Hints:
By secondary structure, this protein is of the alpha+beta class. The chain contains two helices and ten strands.
Amino acid sequence: MEGPSIxxxxxxxxxxxxxxxxxxxxPEGFGRLYAWIGQHGLEPVGMPAAVYLTIPxxxxxxxxxxxxxxxxxxxxxxxxxxxxxxxxxxxxPTLAASAMHKxxxxxxxxxxxxxxxxxxENGYAPAGPPMERxxxxxxxxxxxxxxxxIVMPVRKL
Length: 157
């Protein structure tokens, strides 16, 4: 895997759902999100992502807050969460540090530590919650082949 780099994310429209509690709910959350997208006639595009609003190493899983994002095409504007808890949001371009992790989701923590160290050593500071973009379909790829991009919003010091 290449080392970290500074990127500017593309602006994107996402369908999103807020999650609370154990991360094991992620597959079920994505299932709900993609079913909702289909029911609303939207077209999924790009990689699904999770945005961690609480820091996993500092927050018990029962208190964890995060969002699941699914990029969509053709969605008009923003919409607050409906009765199902799913809404639409416009995400602006963001300056971020990016690093790829290869392997099971449970082994991602060292990649985070490496990325945080790299951010500090290169004159940046975190500027928002980290996001993971998922490039592999667990139904089609063995865990040791999973590709997960960690995207950390940053600002130049």
